[in-house]
């Protein structure tokens, strides 16, 4: 399978689910944990990338998902997709963010129910940020634009 990643010029070839090679420099290979093709469904991508992230959080670890790419490359589609619910259910075409939160809160409810006797309670904190033109915006509070970078235990406060 060859991918046109620069306009109409095909420059990369997908060797397998982990490796891309650069046409013209076939010895130059780029290796990733997983390479999703452009036809992958929102659901499948969530299973590959989002679900393991939520399971990580359920184990008490921090997780971060980062969408990076040129304009029009599909960042918003991937992260949000079609967020309009159908009869109270997620749209088949909804993206990573609604799927992650639905799965996370379902998992939390199940765990709290299973461990009711221990009165287990989960506490979640999340940030949802956009970096555009070197400016940071809090997407949960879009009026908070141009946030300052801070270095320390928590990177951005
Ligand atoms: N995998 C896909 N399947 C179908 N449509 C897609 C897919 N990826 C992107 N699109 C469509 O391509 C267009 C551009 O995608 P999108 O807005 O997500 O790009 P973006 O990277 O967020 O761009 P920008 O940086 O300019 O905000 C949109 O109309 C989107 O619906």
TrEMBL record:
Q: Where is the Kinesin motor domain?
A: 1-157
- Residues bound to ATP are 69-76
Q: Which keywords label this protein?
A: ATP-binding, Coiled coil, Microtubule, Motor protein, Nucleotide-binding
Organism from which the protein derives? Aquilegia coerulea
A Pfam family that this protein carries is: Kinesin
Q: Which GO terms describe its biological process?
A: microtubule-based movement
A cellular component annotation (GO) from this entry: microtubule
Q: Does the keyword DNA-binding apply?
A: no
InterPro entries (alphabetical): KIF15/KIN-12, Kinesin_motor_dom, Kinesin_motor_dom_sf, P-loop_NTPase
Q: Which GO terms describe its molecular function?
A: ATP binding; microtubule binding; microtubule motor activity
PANTHER family the record matches? KINESIN-LIKE PROTEIN KIN-12C, KINESIN-LIKE PROTEIN KIN-12D
Record protein name field: Kinesin motor domain-containing protein
Q: Which family does it belong to?
A: Belongs to the TRAFAC class myosin-kinesin ATPase superfamily. Kinesin family. KIN-12 subfamily.
């Amino acid at each position: 399978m060859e991918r046109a990643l620069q306009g109409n010029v095909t420059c990369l070839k997908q060797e397998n689910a982990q490796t891309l090679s650069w046409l013209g420099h076939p010895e130059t290979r780029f290796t990733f944990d997983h390479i999703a093709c452009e036809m992958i469904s929102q659901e499948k991508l969530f299973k590959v990338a989002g679900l393991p992230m939520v399971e990580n959080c359920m184990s008490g670890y921090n997780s971060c998902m980062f969408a990076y790419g040129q304009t029009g490359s599909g960042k918003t589609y991937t992260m949000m997709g079609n967020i309009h619910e159908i009869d109270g259910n997620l749209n088949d075409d909804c993206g990573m963010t609604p799927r992650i939160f639905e799965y996370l809160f379902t998992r939390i409810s199940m765990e709290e129910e299973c461990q009711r006797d221990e009165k287990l309670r989960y506490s979640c904190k999340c940030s949802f940020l956009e970096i555009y033109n070197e400016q940071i915006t809090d997407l949960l509070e879009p009026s908070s634009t141009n946030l300052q970078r801070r270095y320390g235990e928590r990177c951005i406060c």
